[in-house]
Amino acid sequence: MTSIDFRTIEPLKSISGVVDLARLIANVRGPKRVAVAAAADPHVLSAVHEARIEGLIRPILFGDPDKIAAAAREVGLDLSKVDVRPAANNDAAAEAAVKTVSSGEADILMKGLLDTAVLLRAVLNKEWGLRTGRLLSHVLAYDVPGADFGRLFFMSDGAMNIEPDLKAKIQIVENAVTVAHAVGIDQPKVAMLAAVEVVNPDMSTAVDDAIISKMGDRGQIKGALIDGPLALDNAVSEHAAHIKKINSPVAGKADILVVDDIDVGNVFYKTLVYFARARVAGIIMGAKAPIVLTSRADSEEAKFYSVALACVLAERLQFV
After folding, report:
1. Which long-range contacts (CB under 8 A, 24 or more apart) does 208-216 make?
2. CA-CA to 240 of 20 to 30 Å: which in 4, 88, 169, 190?
3. Cross-strand pairs, 230
4. Could you tell me the keywords of this UniProt record (predicted)?
5. Vertex 190, ends 161 and 202: CA angle to 5°?
6. Residues 246-265: pLDDT tens digits?
7. What percentage of the chain has pLDDT greater than the value 90?
């Protein structure tokens, strides 16, 4: 089967570009197999339905067949050619879905109508889970229609790690860089965000940011340009960086924004969605396969974009 040469992929500049790349992958390599744990959720199945119509995925649905059928009817998903596998409860659905991915029968894991803790417990199972020894972290890809940035942004971690320490932040950066590489950004610019752009010994965030920035300079974190601490304005606005006289290859040009904790990241994410009408796609990185783990409040559009991003990553992770 023909593969995708990611070296020839132009850096994607929008969420639409992510969907287009997922379509290309499907056309060349065939649809990705997505295992959905506890699939009886109309919102999840709506995204699955759209991705299936687009030819991006071949879903495998785990859970109560009657409830899955009822949810599928709500969104017009014809199950006659869909693989539906019974599971007695959510724990069983999570286990079966994870095993399907860990065995290689599926490429992507997706959360349905079950608690995140239940799914992650299965993911982290030592015998048949998707553990790699790496930190699991959430990476958000987004663009803001109508804004003049002209690039795709990434933010981490606003959904998984509550108060990451320095070691965790390093892996958060590395996971985000992997996502950026997958969409054609060979040397992403990473801004370690803080309230200020100077190193204040009294601010642990700024100190961590400075350490990670220096690690990037020394090649301890590879594949990216890293600077920090940087405030949000001078991370994304060249004008703000110029006014504040910050001379850096990252300032004003950041692709990846790394926040200090889940509170900052979660507010940032919801501000993007509800105030800026950003188009978003979220993914859990650090496991053996991409994990689509969205909030029930996320739009069906966001869930679809997340599936498309997972398809790109599933292809990318086969060849790194």
Report:
1. 208/166, 208/169, 208/260, 211/166, 212/166, 212/169, 212/170, 212/173, 215/170, 216/190
2. 169
3. 193
4. Acyltransferase, Transferase
5. 65
6. 999 999 999 999 999 999 99
7. 92
pTM above 0.90, yes or no: yes
Give the closest residue to 189 by CA, choosing from 11, 59, 51: 11
Sign of CA dihedral 66, 67, 73, 75: negative
13 three-class SS = coil
Q: What CATH number was assigned to the domain covering residues 137-275?
A: 3.40.718.10
Map residue 280 onto helix, strand or coil.
strand
Give me the pLDDT at residue 9, please.
Answer: 78
Q: What is the pLDDT of residue 320?
A: 47
Domain ranges across the chain: 15-132+287-317, 137-275
- Which residue do the tokens 């295992």 mark? 35
The Cα 32–Cα 200 span in angstroms is: 47
Provide DSSP, 156-221.
E-SSS-SS--HHHHHHHHHHHHHHHHHTT-SS-EEEEE-S-SS--TT-HHHHHHHHHHHHHHTTSS
Distance of alpha carbon 251 from alpha carbon 83, whole angstroms: 48
Mean pLDDT score of the chain: 95
- Does 15-132+287-317 carry CATH code 1.10.357.10? no
Q: 77 and 45 in contact (C-beta within 8 Å)? A: yes
> Pick the residue with more confidence: 52 or 8?
52
